[in-house]
């Protein structure tokens, strides 16, 4: 969009209307307190330009608070927030050049769909022709062009959600903030909306998205990187696949993908192709080492779907246990086995025959599918 | 068995219909019957025969037309003032966080409980000829005459009515504001809307039905206001209720008083009807 297309010569707003270049978001020791109670401990985190960073964590962990600090709805008690290199900590929300989609969509009930989508552009003083084309584009992106004359109350939840996204996109925000945008939808629509957001980001690769959710599958599907918050503190951050494969701590392992954690002791720290030997009860296993010396206590992290009940090529590690529960669910069978004092969950896709509850069971996994995690106290 | 059960069930709706009777009887005795008496006195002259020329003479008289005009002007101006003041106060109380806000809202609420003449009395102490303001000004500048006279004019009545009736706008507005989804306001701000635009395009449309309800109530109350106008006692500021009082008590002209009363009632009911139509349109 050229500057001429903006029509009226309001320079301050021109930048905002035109902004569309990829922007980073930087949290620099950002801390937020409500009435003296610290709910976000000093957070330092960089969101790269054009990336989707998902913030996940249990309820009350401070995800929304972190997002609201970026939006300018809440002022940090300390620390700075940068958007695209500019320090926005002291700017009011309307000067930050951002847009947000919230859980309940917050559409303006007395405005038609088209006016909802045009709202930000009007507020930023864009020219009428620009507004028309942007509204049309934005509604097109979310497939809602034919609904432009409707009122929000005449739309389904999923449609309202699309309008909320269109309203946010129409201003070409530097960063799009999404706070649990799908949590009010039912599971099936949620899945298709996740795919749509992924497609949208593929169409708008310059758009930086900060995506807050407590649904780890949304995060795993969409995010380039994931940040996990717990009790107001950043507990892990990393590329999605890395964080999933090698969670840095117990909380990350359990929260992201519900990993099995078995206490083990490193038996032999001589690395063979990166692998070290550990002992879990009676079983000796080979797993990727983390440089700790022999005798160190660790937690062995292995995902339920990486365990099989049949010895297969490459699945060279074997743990013995006793089967406690078997839940056949059609495509998948969920099993729980007892290994020492721990419970191990298994998700099997193929089973030759349903195993007997209470019987001994052998579980197999590939050394590359497991990792070692420090055994912190109290975490 | 089923026959036994069906019989009383069928009879019951008829009995339920009777519940509407007591309110109707009360309404008829307390409102419709006196109204009919007034209407009768308005039409019947002293001789007891219908006297239409008397009715027309009253409706065409200068005092009546003046009072009608005064009533309309004062009511509209006061209502506009109530809307402006009520809106400003409601916006501040609801959206500008300050520690005393709830207390302030409650204090303003208590205005509703006070008799209207009390505030008028307070006004005479403040702005009257012998009031604090004039006292300070005559002393401070060595004036011979009190310089501030606005209280004894239509402006004084309007000021008093605005003060007394603003809470009737404030209250529904505060209730409406409290129902607005905070995230709508936040999202609007993030989209680039400055506070005034948020007020105009997000908050006010949501509060419009409340403003109309409160404003209509103000209009009704100010059209019928008697105490304030009487207490201020401004020369030439005669409204319909005051004129009715004058005709009935001072001049013992009951026919004219009843004619004007009927006009006043019709005006009130008309305004109320308009308000209901507006409320239904906007509320639907
Ligand atoms: N306005 C507020 N006043 C006081 N405390 C607040 C306020 N908003 C949030 N909190 C507190 O801050 C903490 C973090 O809240 P936040 O909304 O950021 O959590 P969250 O991670 O988004 O949780 P959820 O998944 O339930 O949305 C919570 O303990 C919450 O009670
Ligand atoms: Mg939240």
TrEMBL record, chain A:
Annotated Gene3D superfamilies: 2.40.50.100, P-loop containing nucleotide triphosphate hydrolases
Ranges where the ABC transporter domain occurs: 25-256
Any single Gene Ontology cellular-component annotation: ATP-binding cassette (ABC) transporter complex
Any one GO MF annotation of this record: transmembrane transporter activity
Keyword Hydrolase belongs to the record: no
Keywords noted in UniProt: ATP-binding, Nucleotide-binding, Transport
Domain of life of the native organism: Bacteria
GO BP, one annotated term: quaternary ammonium group transport
Cited Pfam families: ABC_tran (PF00005), TOBE_2 (PF08402)
Record field: transmembrane: none
Keyword rRNA processing: no
InterPro entries: AAA+_ATPase, ABC_SmlMolc_Importer, ABC_transporter-like_ATP-bd, ABC_transporter-like_CS, Mo/tungstate-bd_C_term_dom, P-loop_NTPase, Transp-assoc_OB_typ2
Protein family (similarity comment): Belongs to the ABC transporter superfamily.
Protein name as it appears in the record: 2-aminoethylphosphonate transport system ATP-binding protein
Source organism of this protein record: Roseiarcus fermentans
TrEMBL record, chain B:
Domain ABC transmembrane type-1: 68-275
GO biological process, one term: transmembrane transport
Transmembrane segments: 18-39, 74-98, 110-130, 150-170, 202-222, 228-245, 257-278
Membrane topology: Multi-pass membrane protein
Pfam family, one: BPD_transp_1
Cellular component, GO, one term: plasma membrane
PROSITE patterns the record matches: ABC_TM1 (PS50928)
Cited SUPFAM superfamilies: MetI-like
Gene3D superfamilies xrefs: MetI-like
Compartments, as annotated in UniProt: Cell inner membrane; Cell membrane
Keywords assigned: Cell inner membrane, Cell membrane, Membrane, Transmembrane, Transmembrane helix, Transport
The family this protein is said to belong to: Belongs to the binding-protein-dependent transport system permease family.
PANTHER family assigned to the protein according to its UniProt record, in alphabetical order: INNER MEMBRANE ABC TRANSPORTER PERMEASE PROTEIN YDCV
Name recorded for this polypeptide: 2-aminoethylphosphonate transport system permease protein
Organism: Roseiarcus fermentans
Lineage: Bacteria, Pseudomonadati, Pseudomonadota, Alphaproteobacteria, Hyphomicrobiales
């Amino acid at each position: 969009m050229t500057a001429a297309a903006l029509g009226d010569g309001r320079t301050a707003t021109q930048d905002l209307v035109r902004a569309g270049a990829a922007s980073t978001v930087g949290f620099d020791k950002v801390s937020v307190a409500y009435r003296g109670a610290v709910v976000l401990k000093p957070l330092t985190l960089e969101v790269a330009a054009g990336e989707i960073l998902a913030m996940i964590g249990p309820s009350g962990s401070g995800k929304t608070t972190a997002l609201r600090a970026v939006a300018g709805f809440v002022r940090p008690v300390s620390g700075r927030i940068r958007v695209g290199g500019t320090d926005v900590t002291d700017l009011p929300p309307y000067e930050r050049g951002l847009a947000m989609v919230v859980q309940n969509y917050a559409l303006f009930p007395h405005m038609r769909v088209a006016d909802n989508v045009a709202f930000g552009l009007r507020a930023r003083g864009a020219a009428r022709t620009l507004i028309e084309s942007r509204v049309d584009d934005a509604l097109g992106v979310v497939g809602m062009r034919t609904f432009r004359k409707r009122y929000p109350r005449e739309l389904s939840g999923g449609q309202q959600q699309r309008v909320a996204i269109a309203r946010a996109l129409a201003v070409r925000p530097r960063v799009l903030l999404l706070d649990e945008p799908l949590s009010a939808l039912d599971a099936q629509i949620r899945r298709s909306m996740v795919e749509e957001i992924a497609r949208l980001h593929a169409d708008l690769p310059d758009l930086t998205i900060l995506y807050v959710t407590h649904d780890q599958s949304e995060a795993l599907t969409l995010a380039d990187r994931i940040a996990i918050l717990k009790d107001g503190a950043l507990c892990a951050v990393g590329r999605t696949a890395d964080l999933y494969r090698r969670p840095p701590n117990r909380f990350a392992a359990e929260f992201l993908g519900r990993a099995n954690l078995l206490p083990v002791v490193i038996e032999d720290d001589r690395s063979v192709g990166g692998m070290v030997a550990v002992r879990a009860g009676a079983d000796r296993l080979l797993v990727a080492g983390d440089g700790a010396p022999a005798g160190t206590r660790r937690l062995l992290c292995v995902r339920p779907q990486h365990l099989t009940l049949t010895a297969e090529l490459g699945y060279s590690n074997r743990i013995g246990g006793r089967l406690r529960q078997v839940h056949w669910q059609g495509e998948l069978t969920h099993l729980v086995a007892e290994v020492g004092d721990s419970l191990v969950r298994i998700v099997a896709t193929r089973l030759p025959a349903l195993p007997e509850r209470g019987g001994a069971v052998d579980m197999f996994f590939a050394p590359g599918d497991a990792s070692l995690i420090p055994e912190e106290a109290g975490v | 068995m089923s026959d036994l059960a069906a019989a009383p069930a069928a009879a019951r709706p008829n009995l339920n219909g009777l519940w509407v009777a007591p309110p109707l009887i009360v309404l008829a005795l307390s409102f419709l019957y006196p109204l009919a008496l007034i209407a009768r006195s308005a039409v019947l002259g002293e001789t007891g025969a219908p006297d239409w020329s008397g009715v027309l003479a009253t409706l065409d008289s200068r005092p009546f037309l003046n009072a009608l005009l005064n009533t309309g002007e004062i009511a509209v101006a006061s209502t506009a003032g109530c809307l402006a003041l009520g809106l400003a106060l409601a916006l501040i109380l609801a959206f500008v966080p300050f520690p005393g806000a709830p207390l302030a809202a409650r204090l303003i609420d208590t205005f509703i409980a006070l008799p209207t003449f009390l505030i008028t009395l307070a006004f005479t102490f403040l702005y009257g000829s012998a009031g604090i303001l004039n006292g300070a000004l005559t002393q401070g500048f060595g004036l011979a005459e009190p310089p501030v006279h606005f209280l004894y004019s239509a402006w004084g009545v309007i000021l008093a009515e605005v003060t007394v009736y603003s809470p009737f706008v404030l209250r529904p507005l505060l209730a409406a504001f409290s129902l607005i989804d905070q995230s709508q306001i936040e999202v609007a701000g993030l989209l680039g809307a400055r506070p005034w635009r948020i007020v105009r395009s997000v908050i006010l449309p949501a509060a419009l039905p409340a403003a109309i309800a409160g404003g209509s109530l103000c209009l009704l109350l100010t059209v019928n206001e008697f105490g304030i106008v009487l207490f201020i006692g401004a020369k030439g500021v005669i409204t319909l209720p005051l004129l009715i009082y004058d005709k009935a008590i001072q001049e013992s002209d009951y026919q004219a008083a009843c004619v004007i009363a009927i006009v006043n009632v019709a005006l009130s009911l008309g305004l109320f009807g308009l308000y209901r139509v507006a409320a239904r349109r906007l509320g639907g």
